[in-house]
Inverse folding.
């Protein structure tokens, strides 16, 4: 059995492919589900070149890291404010691709069938020295990002 056999959400997508999709599908969104602390201290994807902005919404709330009980409702509201519905492609990113997978599952269960998990996330796995952001992920791929 492969990971794909257990997918509930639309699928996994590489960071560079996510950028290409956001560029070619202006009615798509990137949702960063990391914590406020991660956005503040590590940075966030920068979509200004595409005329878009990232939706920042914690999947697990800092500092206790409990799942945000209002995640789905809040994201649905934000999508509605932006004029998007349940057919909108949603690309969800976290630090390494774990929280984003859970969030993509939750959005799929809520009727958003085009919810994707961004593989390896913003920083990816740790390198041999224990540091993130140097091996894989959005930052390592050379995609635009900024300090919040």
């Amino acid at each position: 059995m492969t990971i794909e056999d257990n997918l509930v959400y639309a699928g996994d997508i590489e960071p560079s492919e996510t950028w290409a999709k956001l560029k070619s599908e202006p009615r798509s969104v990137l949702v960063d589900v990391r914590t406020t602390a991660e956005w503040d201290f590590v940075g966030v994807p920068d979509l200004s070149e595409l005329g878009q902005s990232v939706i920042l919404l914690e999947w697990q709330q800092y500092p206790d890291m409990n799942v945000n009980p209002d995640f789905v409702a809040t994201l649905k509201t934000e999508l509605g404010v932006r004029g998007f519905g349940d057919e909108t492609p949603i690309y969800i990113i976290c630090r390494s691709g774990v929280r984003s997978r859970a969030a993509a599952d939750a959005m799929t269960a809520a009727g958003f069938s085009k919810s994707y998990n961004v593989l390896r996330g913003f920083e990816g796995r740790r390198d041999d020295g224990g540091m993130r952001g140097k091996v894989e992920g959005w930052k390592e791929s050379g995609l635009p990002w900024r300090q919040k």
